Structures are given as C-alpha cells and as structure tokens.
Amino acid sequence: MHIWCDGGCIGNGTKNPKCYGSFKVGRNNPPITFQFPELTTNNQAEYQILIIVLELIDPNIKEEVIINVDSALVFNQVTNGWKTTSNRLRELNQKAQKLYNAHPKITLNQISGDEMKRILGH
Prior knowledge:
Elements lengths: L1 E9 L7 E8 L6 E4 L6 H15 L8 E5 L2 H8 L7 H15 L4 E5 L2 H8 L2
Parallel strand pairs: 1-4, 4-5
Antiparallel strand pairs: 1-2, 2-3
C-alpha cells in the first residue's frame, strides 16, 4: 500500500496562517484534506498530517505500507535522528516517531516536491 501525505501553510509564520494537510491512499483514490487552524507553520502541518496517517493505520496490518512525504525535515527527523531544535516541532516529532516506530510494516519514504504536486496537487 502506498500513501502520500503533505502539509502546507499559506501565510507561513504570519498572524493569520492557513495550515492544511492532505493524504491519498493509492494513486486512484481522491485525496482527503484537513484544515489545521491551530497551527502556524508548514512544518507543523507536515507533521500533523503524517501523525493523522500513522494513527489511521491498523497496528496489526499485515501488508507493507509506504508513506511518501516531501519534507526533508520531517523525513530526517523521524527516520534519521536529526535534532528537533524548534520547541513548536518537538512534541509533534516525538509523537510521529513513537507512532512510526510502533509500526514495523511502515516505511517512510521521501519524494520530490514536484512528484508530490503531481499526486496531491500541492
């Protein structure tokens, strides 16, 4: 199973940001989109949509799941131990790592932003 997830923010870091995230299961299904009014940056949105996807996956799933993200920051902080220096991201990172590490059948994969745009539209 392949899943693509991406977060973003219009007005990133401003007083009135509009953060959102989408994910898509398989290439032929429509994307599912969320609004995150409590978030203020694109990195927070990237983490939040990944967390939503990880929480939706059955912990007893038998098949391999590949989750595709385009955020180098999120990918490397979750999989390669990059330090999380932002207080805003630390809690999200810890939650995502815990969920990711609890699913032995899940692989996190980094893809290009162009590929993500083709698949999710943003």
